[in-house]
Amino acid sequence: MKNLSTTFLFFACMTCFSQEVQKRQIPPAQIDAIFSQWDTPDKAGIAVGILSDGETIYTKGYGLANLEHKIPISTETRFHIGDLAKEFTVYALLLLEERGRLSLQDDIRKYIPDLVPFPHHISIEQLIHHTSGLNNHEVSKALAGWNSEDVYTKKQAYAMVGNQTRSLVNSGNVQRHSDAGFMILEDLIAQIVKMSYADFITKEIFEPLGMTNSVFDTQGAVIVNKAQGYFTQEDGFANSNFNHTHTIVSDVYATVGDMCLWAKELGNPKMGTEQMVKKFDSMSVVNEKSVEKTNTALYTGGHRFWDFRGVDKLYHIEVAGGYASKLIRYPDYDLAIVVMGNDGAYNGYAATAASELYIEDFLNPMSNESAEIISKKLSKKQLALFEGNYWDATNYSTRKIHMANDTLRYFRGPGNESALVPLTKDSFKMIARGEVNVRFDAKAVPMKMSVTVGEDIFHSIAYDANASWTKNLGVFTGNYFAADLGTSYSLSIDQGKLVLVHPRLEPVQLNPRIPDVFTGDRRHFTSLAFKRDTNGNVTGFQLATSGVANIWFQKEITQNQNLTKTK
User: Rounded to the nearest 5 degrees, what angle is found at the Cα of 279, between the Cα atoms of 274 and 284?
Assistant: First the structure.
């Protein structure tokens, strides 16, 4: 009887424990409340899918899939998922590796021998991890003067990749997002399986998982139940002219229900294996080492990591062409949330809020960090010492420190700034989520600022936009040619400002930062660092921005300059 009582007590405790660790049961009304801003009869909207313990427990649409015809979003509405489709590419490669058809360490030219002659070994794994050294050709084509609505073929994309081989950084040691790598991977898969990439993904992933509403748009096909993408305007919405250039085949439209099935596979693989998912959910490799597991760190599958109040959150986001999608997974709690919208705006915060309802019991409590800070009293004069503009030469970013209401503030852009609470005479704590500290070195000339976020430190130096070197802008004017892009720009002065001009692009106004370094007022012109010869003459500039390495623009020598050199 004693043993029976012990056994009963054991199972009773196990039952209590099981109940304690279960996720919350959330009524539909609470989910609806989170997405209420899209629940309107006259605006573009959003679709939501929730997977818990391997079962799709909630799917619903809010708002309109098509404004012209007043078609509401339903669970059958298909949205363009953009970059999320790269997860299928990675899974297909892992599937082929599982079958012995390839190794992720193989050089890509083993399967595509006619590929452009890269100066170094590039493996399949390096393309997956975005460490191949290849520039993002979507950024490259924009810099070369291609507009988003232009027809841009795969042949032209490969030609641009080929133009840049001489300036590639060594593979493996730099992580830089590149669609060119996934274009190559799609062709590599097709070469191995002897069928089109789209047919292989459909046959080997979509069909086995029951993703019957997931389709490829390879040739502008008619797609039933497709949501129209829109962009918001002051007076309503405008249609998105989403141009599929087809350099990457993975133009996929899917429903939230299908994406829940995909998340189910990653949580409990049936078509693949647990070893495949383990690789899929392993950190990216840079310099033959796994990247540190910090917020926004990249995984093999292209998704990212976030420490969400002490819980591991894996997520993948796409916002492009009037569509916005986000897939969130919490592997430790068998929970996944997918949202898809067609109003062109980021909606992932709502997915996070919905997921928070289910796992609130497992999350660290929200802390009021500002209440715990013991601040030091500094005078206005002491605070004013740190005011000014600062340039981060490594990350090509500008920050402004200014005073408002006797408080020093860290300004990133309109509507995006944080208060700084003084800890010592030259160090501050930023009022923001997470541990962020700012320190100034007032003795340095120019003044230096360091921002510490966790274990990462970002260094900036103060700059004066009206410094003496900015008074002689004429030395920078002229024509510049980028061999990597096969295009030219001209630099001239307009109303006292340097302006970069391309015949197919809007003019870019350049604003001075540190000596001989400018930043443009348009996307992709983040940093232009001019170089001089031993006589102080400008010879060209290096353009750096997200997605590409430094692209060299050689200054063209005029006829008068040639005559001078000849004499």
Answer: 160
Cβ(409)–Cβ(403) below 8 Å: yes
Distance of alpha carbon 316 from alpha carbon 296, whole angstroms: 10
Structure tokens at 549: 């390495």
How many structural domains is the chain composed of?
3
What does the alpha-carbon distance between residue 359 and residue 463 come to, in Å, rounded to a whole number? 46
- Does the pLDDT value for residue 363 go beyond 90? yes
**Separation between Cα atoms, residue 361 and residue 275, nearest integer Å:** 30
pLDDT band for position 138 (cuts 50, 70, 90)? confident
**Cis-peptide into 446, omega within 30 deg:** yes
Asked whether 361 and 26 are in contact (CB, 8 A), the reply is no
CB-CB contact of 48 with 60 (8 Å): yes
In whole angstroms, what is the distance from residue 42 CA to residue 239 CA? 14
Alpha-carbon distance of 565 to 196, in angstroms, equals 57
| Structural domain range at position 59 | 28-133+168-362
Do 459 and 329 share a structural domain?
Answer: no
Phi, psi dihedrals of residue 110, rounded to the nearest 5°: -65, -30
Number of H helices, E strands in the chain: 14, 31
In a shared domain, residues 99 and 181: yes
Of 164, 154, 150, 141, nearest to 187 (Cα)?
154
User: Residue for token digits 């740190």?
Assistant: 386
Q: What is the pLDDT of residue 10?
A: 42
Q: Are 236 and 344 in contact (CB under 8 A)?
A: no
Within this chain, do residues 329 and 381 fall inside the same structural domain, yes or no?
Answer: no
- CATH number, domain containing residue 548: 2.40.128.50
Residue 48 CA to residue 19 CA, distance in Å, equals 27
Cα 460 from chain centroid (whole Å): 23
C-alpha closest to that of 153 among 84, 252, 79, 243: 243
Q: Answer whether residue 266 is part of any domain.
A: yes
Token look-up 């061999």 returns 483
For the cut 70, the answer to whether the pLDDT of residue 42 exceeds it is yes
Positions of E strands within 171-222: 215-216
- Nearest CA-CA partner of 556 in 467, 460, 487, 464: 487
CB 304 within 8 A of CB 294: no
All residues at 6 or more sequence positions from 225 whose CB lies less than 8 Å from its CB, including other chains: 65, 74, 76, 77, 78, 213, 255
Q: What per-residue confidence (pLDDT) applies to 79? A: 97
Task: Report if residue 186 sits inside a domain.
Answer: yes
- Between CA 125 and CA 129, with CA 126 as vertex, the angle to 5 degrees is 85
Of 24, 78, 31, 33, the residue nearest 52 (C-alpha):
24
CA distance 159 to 170: 20
**For residues 473 and 69, what is the distance between their CA atoms, to the nearest angstrom?**
54
